[in-house]
Amino acid sequence: MKIAFVGAGRLAQTLAAAFHRTEIEVVAVFNRSRPAAESLATMAGACKVCETPQQAADMADLVFITVSDDAIGTVVRQVNWRQDQCVVHCSGASEVSVLEPAAVQGAAVGGFHPLQIFSDPTIALPRVAGSSVAIEAEGSLELELNRLAAAVGYRVIKLPPGARGRYHAATNYAASFMLSLLREACDLWNSFGVSDQEALAALLPLTRGTLDAATAKGLAGAMAGPISRGDASVVALHLRELAELGEDTVDFYRSVSMRQLRLARDKGHLDNAVLERLDKTLRES
């Protein structure tokens, strides 16, 4: 199928380059910023830079709508779609129903959301293979999107209708929320004079090591620290020290630690008495 992109941001540039690298034909791109469109066109093997979304859509069998979530509906309503076309957005949060104006005209519609960070396409491109993509589509479009995913090396997660809110919230836990945990850790070290730069130099290797362990051993198997060991006295020490920094700091620690208890139970190394002592320490401190 001939592919066009409407929207030429970093996600689109990465996908276009990945498709071109595997000899999937990208024929057209439209973007309000012509330099961005020209950048994508170069990465896609010198495809045509179009003047309107309609011109790009007219050249393609499969159109990727890769604009911001708020703009998807507006773009789709601007185009006259054909019955033999496929229209896909790459949003994680927006329901496929936002493409209804295309579906009403007979086009097949779906979602194709790569689970990657696209802050720099040159970094993102080598990481396409081995990453995952959430696909929501039916029939021949689902088959085609699965084929594209396999060609570039994505693992496929089949996303049912109506699950996007929970799906997208989970991706934030695995990505951006991890930064909030590191921010909290840096704040604690800032309180006794260690800068963010020094803190991250020390803490990021711990983070990477934890992720490597989770890859090898699973979430519960990768656990370390006082809750993993059943050290209620250390947890109590943490809570006393954090109380000096304010109730909000204690509440945050307690909330995360209560979820750690589930992993400790899953790990199976602690007996019920130890787990109950940890729970009591966290609740009553």
Q: What does the model show?
A:
- The structure is a single chain.
- An 8-stranded mixed sheet has the order 3-2-1-4-5-6-7-8, sandwiched between helices.
- It has 2 domains: 161 residues, 3-Layer(aba) Sandwich (Rossmann fold); 112 residues.
- The protein has 285 residues and is an alpha/beta fold.
- α1 packs parallel to α2, α9 crosses α10 and α12 packs parallel to α14.
- The protein is built from 14 helices and 8 strands.
- The mean pLDDT is 96.
- α5 links the parallel β5 and β6.
In whole angstroms, the N-to-C terminal distance is 62 Å
Number of helices: 14
Q: Helix-strand pattern, N to C?
A: EHEHEHEHEHEHEHEHHHHHHH
Largest sheet: 8 strands, mixed
The Cα radius of gyration reads 24 Å
- Give the fraction of residues assigned to helices: 55-70%
Task: Determine the strand fraction and express it as a percent band.
Answer: 5-15%
Tell me the strand order in the biggest sheet: 3-2-1-4-5-6-7-8
What name goes with the CATH superfamily of the largest domain?
NAD(P)-binding Rossmann-like Domain
Count of structural domains: 2
CATH T-level fold name of the largest domain = Rossmann fold
Give the overall pLDDT as a whole number.
96
Structural class: alpha/beta
DSSP strand count: 8
Which runs of at least 5 residues are low in confidence (pLDDT < 50)? none
